[in-house]
Each structure stands twice: as structure tokens, then as C-alpha cells.
Amino acid sequence: MIGGEAATAVEDLISGVRQAANFMQQFHSYLESEKQWKALVEFILLHLPDYHDPPNGGGCLDQLLSLSMVWASCLFLGCSYNKALLDKVMEMAGGMKVEDLPQFVTRSELMKKHQS
After folding, report:
1. Domain XRN2-binding (XTBD) spans what residues (predicted)?
2. Which pTM does this prediction carry?
């Protein structure tokens, strides 16, 4: 049995993990698969220190959530956005690995196949 300061430290750690999980859960959409949600959580947590809102607000967290949705929409739904935005979110994703992503064919690719 752990006692004293060690027990308090473990309890504080568990409490912090629960608070983080509860914080993240508020952003979970019922439309997201478990795979999408796990990828979004990883993306958000990776950048949360850089995008946390200052005490007076400022919308940094909203910007991070928006960027995470753009990233996930590209990967999981095949959406496209302007090049600068796509470059930004793909750079932010860096070395993140998401397995078994769907493969998409763009309209332009389909048109090229039919013209050949």
C-alpha cells in the first residue's frame, strides 16, 4: 500500500488525467468514428500548449479546434481546402500516423481517366 506523499501524488495524477479526459470529451461529435476521435484528440493535445486561450479569451482554442477539423476532414472524408490551409494542417500533423485511411479519387483524377 502506498502512503503519504506518494499516494497524494498518484491521486493528483489520476485526477489530472480525468480532468483532461473530461475537457476533451466536450469536443467529441457523435458523427465521428472512434478512429477519427482518437486522431483528433492526438492532434489537439499535440498543439494545445501553443493554442490555449489566454485568461481574457482570444479564441486560440477555437482556432486549434477548427484546424483539427480541417485536418480530419481531409484525411477521413476527402475534403479539400486551399493549399495554404492544407499545408498548415499537414505540417501541424507532422509525423502523426493514422492507419487504414480511406482512399479518395478527386474529380480531376476521374476526368483524366475518362479522357484517356
Report:
1. 24-116
2. 0.69
